[in-house]
Amino acid sequence: MSLTTAQEALKIILDTSEDFGTEEVKFLKSLGRTLKEDILADRDFPPFNRISMDGIAISSEAFNKGQRSFKIEGVQAAGSKQLTMQNPANCIEAMTGAVLPKNTDIVIQYELLDIKDGVATVNLEAIKSSQNVHLKGLDRKKGDILIPKNTLISPAEIGVFATVGKMTVKVAKQPKVMIISTGNELVGVCDTPEEHQIRRSNVYTLVSLLEKLNIHAETAHITDDKELLLTKINSFLNDFDVLLFSGAVSKGKFDFIPEVLDELGVDKLFHRVKQRPGKPFWFGKKDHKTIFAFPGNPVSTFASCLKYFYPWYYKSVGINYENKNQAILAEDYFFKPDLTYFLQVKVTKEDGKVFATPITGRGSADLANLVDSDAFLELPDDRSNFTKGEVFPLITYR
Fold first, then answer.
1. Global confidence as pTM
2. Which of 3.10.180.10, 2.40.340.10, 3.40.1120.10, 2.40.40.10 is the CATH number of 326-396?
3. Rounded CA separation 207/219 (Å)
């Protein structure tokens, strides 16, 4: 049976994206979520002619007639109601952020003034229209779209929500995800493993990868018992939108997951991808439930989640995501198998360029080697020799 290429696998996965609906959340709880409504300006931005430098507000007409000394008539403070200058030959001291007083149209900063006995003398021979004044509505008009829907919410968006008085915002609902490990060789993190056992780690790697997407996944462990697997997985299919498996998808005697999923009516869309690590990767759907079954080796699980689950999630919540990260191979590299290779690399930056240096590991089971790396460099499957200076896609995780 021919293998699915990495490119074909990603396309199949993206074609099965899901819409999980929307919900309203408090704006301070929306960081990292996907906005599902346009945010409009509730008034002009700025909402008044705003002073942008501390100084004096004057009439440009008086200045243009040759006047350079102005009696101070009052002080316009930020947050105070707009003053009206009574005498066009006078000035009003004006503070940054305050509204421009009536009958004035420019501000001259303190650095260009001499003030003595209540009179400000300007040391300037030319002025500009609306000098040091941020005009009302210059940035946005009332009703303008400030943030379009399907924006990934960052601290910048949080500030805009506050500015327009949006106490709650509509965001994409997160999928309900169950992360499942299998295998009799796995014990809990707090347990002391026997010589033939190892602690569960892949599920927590996946939990952390999903936490970066603000998805709070649940976890479960099932031993290599087919009937138990059938019962448990059937329950999870009813209760969750996404199942992420780690392990039991290869050709071992106790690798029951593909068989169990088939018996539960899950439609297999592919099994085995032309890649390393992660060749036994299985993917399928049942109604609106999505199943990612990653190989059990730690690096396989890690790379596959970044390569496939992340783009699927972004498309599902409406973000037009495309990995445009690239890096320059820092040294020659040779990889013989006819497979897409996710090469672990250390990333450095020099003169604005991104370089990827291969980090030698001991295969897809070498979990500790991930700590020494920053990313995966995606090498194509149609060649074996990769030359220093060539540019390839980069999948980062730091």
1. 0.86
2. 2.40.340.10
3. 8
